[in-house]
Amino acid sequence: MEERMTVDKNAEQASYSQVPLPVPQTGLFPTGQHRDREFICGWGAAFINICITFPINKTIFRQQLHGVSITQALQQLRSDGVQYLYRGLLPPLLQKTSSLSIMFGGYYMSQDFLQVRLPSLSVYVNHTIAAMTAGTLEAVLNPFERVQTLMQTAKYHNRFSNTLDAIKHLRQYGLKEYYRGLSVIILRNGPSNVAFFLGREWLQKHVPKSNTGTEKMLKDFICGAMLGMLISSVFYPLNVIKTQMQCKLGGPFDGIWVTFRRLWRERNGSVRGIFKGVHLNYMRSFLSWGIINASFEFLMETLYNERHQRPGIR
């Protein structure tokens, strides 16, 4: 009897030894968790989007800069010539691909970091802080937006031969000149990221599931498009202020309030004047963010066989 009990006890201990013990989370991120996929797919989604929507974006830029109608902005681009239509493409291509890579990758990486370091945070707070963090990190790429603005401004067409020439020209004004408009970009990026990611997750949770690949892509497009259209319209005045701040070369660095007051006077104290170009902007954002959201999910599923739908906001 004693021998049998000893054998049973040894067998029980052996079975326990085969069960892996949980690995303590001692690092900055969950063990075995990698976010290179989000960085790569964010980059790819931005590349697809920029190549399609750049001419529309350039038309909106002319409206923001000069306060003109769509017809007048198109006439300006037509008078510039076809050779200038994609002038300034490289800065937004570099900026947007890097920015969306940081936006998606930084968002999910920040979630992982907070989950390890502050596990008591609710999903809502975790995702809000992660989105704000990713948006702030994107502001590091401000020089790309700065050069893009200069390259798209008509009065600088004969001053800079290409993007690299504009970057070199800014060097004589010092490092600070590359980051003109940084304050308004930080003010725009963080809150808009929060609105996008929390809204995206809420829609993913409440919109009916799709069965076919075409239905999934259409759903992702519509969700991204509606969010992009709404968010870009709300934050449109900040983009107008950013354009006004960054179209200058040298001179004093006017803050957000000073720039807004000057713009308000130039547009004759008209809210409609401040929002000049918003119609084309929300059409562009509808298309742009629909493409970005659908492309991101398509790339995640195609390259990594994964639909990116983590636990969202209730």
Automatic annotation (TrEMBL):
Solcar repeats lie at residues 33-113, 122-206, 215-302. It comes from the Eukaryota. SUPFAM superfamilies: Mitochondrial carrier. Keywords: Membrane, Mitochondrion, Mitochondrion inner membrane, Repeat, Transmembrane, Transmembrane helix, Transport. It comes from Biomphalaria pfeifferi. Pfam families: Mito_carr (PF00153). GO terms for cellular component: mitochondrial inner membrane. GO terms for molecular function: NAD transmembrane transporter activity. It is a multi-pass membrane protein. It is found in: Mitochondrion inner membrane. Gene3D superfamilies: Mitochondrial carrier domain (1.50.40.10). This is Solute carrier family 25 member 51. Belongs to the mitochondrial carrier (TC 2.A.29) family.
